[in-house]
Structures are given as C-alpha cells and as structure tokens.
Amino acid sequence: MLKPVSHLAxxxxxxxxxxxxxxxxxxxxxESLSIQADIPRxxxxxxxxxxxxxxxxxxxLLLGFGIDERFRALSTIWGVEQRLFSTMxxxxxxxxxxxxxxIFPDRRDAMILSPLPxxxxxxxxxxxxxxxxxxxxxxxxxxxxxxxALALVLGGIPHFLRIAAAFWFSxxxxxxxxxxxxxxxxxxxxxxxxxxxLRLSAILQIAAFGTLVSAYFLEPRLHTPAALALAKNQxxxxxxxxxxxxxxxxxxxxxxxxxxxWLAARAWIGLAVAVIGAAxxxxxxxxxxxxxxxEEPDLMPAPRGLHWARHIGGLRSxxxxxxxxxxxxxxxxxxxFAFYLSLVLAIALSLLRDELSSAAHVPxxxxxxxxxxxxxxxxxxxxxxxxxxxxxxxxxxVWRTTQLFPPETYITxxxxxxxxxxxxxxxxxxxxxxxxxxxxxxxxxxLAILALLGWIFVELGLIGFHKIxxxxxxxxxxxxxxxxxxxxxxxxxxxxxxxxxxxxxxxQHLSSALWTVAAFSAVAVGLWAFNCHGAKSEVLCFEELPPxxxxxxxxxxxxxxxxxxxxxxxxxxxxxxxxxxxxx
Length: 584
Prior knowledge:
Layout: H1 2-10, H2 14-24, H3 39-67, H4 74-98, H5 107-113, H6 120-155, H7 160-190, H8 194-218, H9 225-229, H10 231-237, H11 241-253, H12 261-288, H13 315-329, H14 331-351, H15 353-357, E1 362-363, H16 366-386, H17 396-401, H18 407-433, E2 437-438, H19 440-461, H20 481-506, H21 510-535, E3 556-557, E4 560-561, H22 562-568, H23 578-581
Parallel strand pairs: 1-2
Antiparallel strand pairs: 3-4
Helix pairs in contact: 2-6, 3-6, 3-20, 4-6, 4-7, 4-8, 4-11, 6-7, 7-8, 7-11, 7-12, 8-14, 11-12, 13-14, 13-18, 14-16, 16-18, 16-19, 16-20, 18-19, 19-21
C-alpha cells in the first residue's frame, strides 16, 4: 500500500514537493525559532493532545452507552454529536486563524521565489496542500477514536461503515466550511492596499479568536427535537453552523426528522459558498498582490499622531513600551496573545452567564471565584509564554550592545511588563464583574486576594526566566508539551476548586479574611525576594540552545577512564599507547 503511494508522490513535480515540505514546516513562524528547533516533534506533541482528547471522548462514549441506560436517550446522543461537531469546528477555526497569512504570499515568498522559474500556481498548490495536510492531521487526530465509537454506538457492527462514512464526510465538510469562510475573509482584505490590510488583519485576527472561543462556550445547547422546533430557537439555528453539519450527519445517517431538513440544506449551501469564495480569493491574491508584498514590511506601521510615550523615560518604561508595541504591531505575538485573552474572556462569559443576566445583586459564589482564578492563571502564564517568542532575532543585537545596566534591572522591568500586560487587565475585568455581587466588604477582600494571587503568579512565572520579553529565541521540542498541557489543566482544575472553597469560608468572617490576605502577602513578598536575590547573579539569555551531551567511548588505561583523566587535567594531553585502548 505504501509503495504505490510513495511512487505516486515521486511522480509529482520536484518544485511542488520541495515547496510543500517547506510550507508544511512553516505552520510555526521560523523567524521566532532557535537555530536547532525540532519543528516536527513540536507539531507532533500538539497532535498528541488532540489524540488524547479523542481517546477520552471515545472511551467515555462506549462506557456510558454500555453502563447507563439513560445514556441511550436521543437527547444524550444528539448532545454528544453536537459537541463533537462544535469542537471540531473550533479546532479548524483556530488552525485557520493561527495560520492566518501562511496560505497567502508574503515578503519571503515574493523575494525568494519570484526571481526563480517557479510558477505562481505551483506555489499556490503547494501552500494549499500544506494547509490541507495540517487541517487533515487535526481532523484525524481529534476524531479517529470518538468517531469510531459514535459509529459503533449508533449503528453497531452491521451499519458501522455507513455511519462512519457519514460522520467523516460531515466532519470534513464542517471543517472545510469554517476554514474556507475565514480564508474568504482574509482573501478579500488582502486585495486592499498592503498597509490597510495589515491594520485590518490585526483586528480580524483578534475578532476571529474572540468569536470562535466565545461562541463555543456561549451557544445554546439544543439536544432534543422539541428544543430545535421552538420558534424562539429557529433564528439562533440560522447562525450556528455546527448545528447545520450536525443535521447533515443525521441526514446522511438516515436519522434526521424531515422537519429539520432545512438545516442540512444550509450545510450544503454554506460548504459550496465557502469553497468557491476561498478559491476565488486565493486566485485573485496570487495574481494581483504577490509582487506588491515586497514593498512594505510585515510589521504594522505606527499610526500618526501624538506620541505620548516620548515623554516617558527610564529602562523599565522602555521595556514595557517595547512589549506593548510588540504585541500590537507583530502578527505572531498578537496572534498568540489574542488566543489567551479570548480564552480568558470565554471562561468569564461561560461561567458568569447566569450572574450577569440577573438584575438583583447576588452573594459571592464558587462559580465566580473559579472563573476569576482561571482567568488570572491563563492570563499570567499565557503572557509569560508569549514573552518567550522573539520579535526578530536579527534585532537582538540592539539589546545586547546596549546592556548598560545589571541583569537584575532588566528582570525588574520584565516583572513590570508582566504586571501591566496580564495581571492588571484581568484584575480590572474581575473588579468590573464583581459589581454585581454583595456585600461590599466581601467583594473588597476578594479583590485584595485576587491582586495578591496575580502577584504570586507573576513571581512564579519569573523563576528561571532571565530574559527581556520578545528577545530570546524559542526552542520547540525542548519540553514535553503533552505532559505540560495535561498537568496544567489538572493544576487549574484542582487549584480553582480548592481555592474557591477555601476563600468562600474565609470571606464569611472579617478576621479570617484578614488572615488570608496576610498569608498571601507573605507568600508574594517571599517569592519577590527570592527572584530579586537570584537575579543578581544571573546573565541575560538571548538564544535557546539544547544542552550539549558528551558521549563516552569507554577508553581506559590501567583501569582508569581516560575522559576522567582529561577532566581532572584538561590542559595536559596524556599519551595513550595503542595497545591500551584496544584500537587498531
């Protein structure tokens, strides 16, 4: 089976094969990576996270269907199906936003490939194939176990292939629809002047992140035919594409009531419009805008007007402003930062939907505390991860040659940047949300504890982080992303639940609230003193490199390892007879 596929791949044009490999590895921005980055391992770790999700969903579906009779109800089955489609569309949309400009020609493509005898259609086909491969990897990783389990539950052994084919076609169609819709929007804006496109691209990326994540958490759950048939829900269903492709799957599987055939019809129409719009916008961009991209840089030009930052001096202000402008003007950093902010916003809206819709003031509850703790955690540690991505490796020499202060001064400025960009905005949002709760004394104590918690998270994030934000290369594959991800999710869940229960008890009495504030203050001050003491003896890091490993050959002389002799006396070179080493 593999031999015919390999033979067919070798029959493709050499230019296409070379460009396809390069574009496939450019899902991650190469300008941000270390010179020894392991990109395939880095992408494989993220695929492993999706595979684990699929296995957990499939195992839960099989166990629930076999053990609990209530799990076989139509409302439960439809709820599982709808959740699978909405999750897949969320992942497809996030992939489209993460690879926002990868499928379109950029300055690097125009400057390197334009002088070469490479046709634009070859570049276009290589980029489309690379993006399709990335999307296909996500579809298979996220649905291989859950889709098989769903087909086995719904059709059993006799109808397994038919249900599985309907599921995979519907999932692929839903992913292509959302991916193609975002490509259409990008292609239409790319036809505008380059400078205007860069400005609109920043707004569209952030808006797309916020819309996708917020819709995933806030959309209504309609799992029964009666709920879908309600007149007040019909207008919502017209703007919820995951329900369209959920209906398409049931139509292909033969289990869709005729009253909801219009939802499946919308799925077919949306798929056709998305494919035609994406193809048209891509052709227009490659025909009209490829050469024009060379003339302007990828960094968004600063707007004209009053520059208030000129009147602020000092190294700390300079690094904070450098971080702010890196996030607002650089596409890569703005993208990752918007992801964490959208996640924080989605958590807040999903867990506080009932409280915000209530007109009367309510007391503090566990749901609100869990939401605020999760928001602070994702914001601080997410921004800390964004700090690891450089704005431009070729510009790091500016910071290296202008290092006129000790490293501890730069680390202090990094602390201020993390406070201003992560902890402070989340605290202000939580303070605004807390206006719906009473009594005021408990709310004030809660805000004090949340501020101290943000300070503690900032200090924890700075342990071992001896860098200026956005000035050190990133080395993907160095850490186990899967282990860190699941460990972080487990930590967030346990920490938020335990902290919510602890703080609810502490806020009941003034004395216990004061003792809690004092304990958090002591922890924050202790971590701050620890980081300040360690910063005095550290050296700023600008390049992530893997550790060097020395392989011993096992050469001995008179029973003593030669490498140990050389370690003890590195300047002396002992003479080793040939017969003592066993070498020819």
